[in-house]
Amino acid sequence: MPQSPDDLDAVAVRTWCSLALEALGRERAAIDAINVYPVADGDTGTNLYLTVESAAAAVEAVFAAHETGPTVPAHADAVRAMAHGALIGARGNSGTILAQLLRGMAAVLSEAGDAHHLRTALAEAAAAARLAVAHPVEGTVLTVATAAAEAAGATGRDAGLQDVAEAAYEGARAALAATPGQLAVLGRARVVDAGGQGLVTVLGALLEAVGGQARGGAVGPAPETLPLTGDCAEPGHDGGPAFEVIFLLEAPDDAVARLRDRMDALGDSLVVVGGDGLWNVHVHVDDAGAAVEAGVEAGRPYRIRITHFAADRGAAHREPAQRAVVAVVPGDGLSGLCAEAGATTVLARPGEPPASGELVDAIRRAHAREVVLLPNDAQLRHTAAAAAEQARTEGIRVALVPTRAAVQGIAALAVHEPGRSFDEDVVAMTAAAGATRYAELAVAERQSWTMAGICQAGDILGLIDGDVAVIGEDVPRTARTVLDRMLSAGGELVTLILGEDVPDTLGDELSEHVREGYLAVDTVVYRGGHQAAPLLIGVE
Fold it and tell me: Rounded CA gap, 342 and 326, in Å?
């Protein structure tokens, strides 16, 4: 417990994060089970847990930096770290909204952590969250946040920090109990709002951190459905968009304002949170590629996560699918392509490969009993193996197909058949990947010795199966030479993936080169978006 219950100091913030993470860990599965809005994909509890886990880790990092010092961190540093950690680690619709709530609170609590500032912080948080959601709906976490703020605001001037926290918690609990009567899909399923339940849990942890005692809120079916209030009745989202797209975005405020309008036209469940140049964008769409492209136009998107919703989204609790594919992709363009093929994707930024925790998170998001993992990078084999082993301890059957390049992953995904046995599917995908030779073009950063001779800084390198085979002066001629080397051993299909700065004309030129020189060899061209290599090549 914090030393001063009337001041939300750094230790109290740390305790709050720890207690919230512990409580969400206990309730995660139960909250997942009541997740029916906006999509019945059974992951709200998990998303909230992962969001708070990121917030708690950021706070711990602040404390770790002060381990050698004589004092604990300033409370402002702790609350800002909490908000920033939640922002960069937000998952799903509910996690993104929670990140904005914590950001709204941090803007006020960074000044002081007394009762008055907590009242103001809760009000600011509720208002900020509503502004972040394109089309606010009552009966959701937004309603619960507003009720918590109003209850806290009704406390008297003499109320202490604990009194304000308790009022917010009780106000949130009362609002949560009423959500089935405000949102039709909750009433039909006879459950309270899952995101609202998560917020009650987080506020309960806050109350406990400042010396109070939170009473457990009921998680699960509501004791009885309440009469619907017409204006708040909301139809279920059966048959809604196919993909959930989430990414962090570095962009100025004016660009984000335009992004909101474009995203709103693409799909629904749009939530854009953040500020000061860093944003977390969440949307449900049918065209995942268009959503990512909108982000690219606004600024620099990264940590892109695209999840394909299961067809049975209308169920009150989605049972895990039998099988799913998780693929690491080197560019945002391939994220959309692989997602449209049914894969859950993890974006590998240039020079920043995903950690095993990110792969485990993606395996969980796939929400399947059986998962095929495509690392698509030889250097990720150990990371992918560790992620697969962790997921297996959670009861998920994971097969690691050792794809060494994105083109091998695309080949494996093309033959994926969820209807056949898991082992047969893995064998077929492994065979398709193994039958695909891969190459990429890169720009030499300095003079060095290679298997093809000495290269100079700025030379174009053609790497075949990971080794430098060609040294050239420009991309088109080097690409043609690489293709000739690869096709000399035969082939039926050439896959070309163009980088962000490569013109479409290169794809046309190389396709024509293949048609003229190699009869019966087909060529397909994809835009890879922002990727390290200007060109990726696959030959099957």
Answer: 9
Q: Which pLDDT score, from 0 to 100, does residue 234 have? A: 37
Could you give the CA distance from residue 268 to residue 137 in angstroms, rounded to a whole number?
Answer: 12
CA 195 to chain centre: 17
- Taking the CA of residue 483 as centre, how many other CA atoms within 13 Å lie in the half-sphere pointing to its CB? 28
| Spatial CA neighbour of 10 closest among 90, 119, 109, 98 | 109
Q: Are 199 and 20 in contact (CB under 8 A)?
A: no
Of the candidates 150, 144, 139, the one whose C-alpha atom is nearest the C-alpha of residue 225 is: 139
pLDDT at 489 over 60: yes
The mean-pLDDT minimum among 49-53, 64-68, 270-274, 375-379 falls in 64-68
Cis amide linkage into residue 476, ω under 30° from 0:
no
pLDDT score for 316: 37
Q: Which structure tokens are listed for 105?
A: 């609170």
Q: Give the DSSP per-residue string, 175-229.
A: HHHHGGGT-HHHHHHTB--HHHHHHHHHHHHHHHHTT--PPPPP-SB-SSPPPP-
- Cα–Cα distances (Å) from 167 to 120, 163, 212, 352, 392, in that order, read 13, 6, 11, 44, 43
Neighbour-count burial of 427, counting CB atoms closer than 10 A to its CB (0-12 exposed, 13-18 middle, 19+ buried): middle
Task: Round to whole Å and give the CA distance between 186 and 196.
Answer: 12
Which amino acid does the sequence have at 396? I
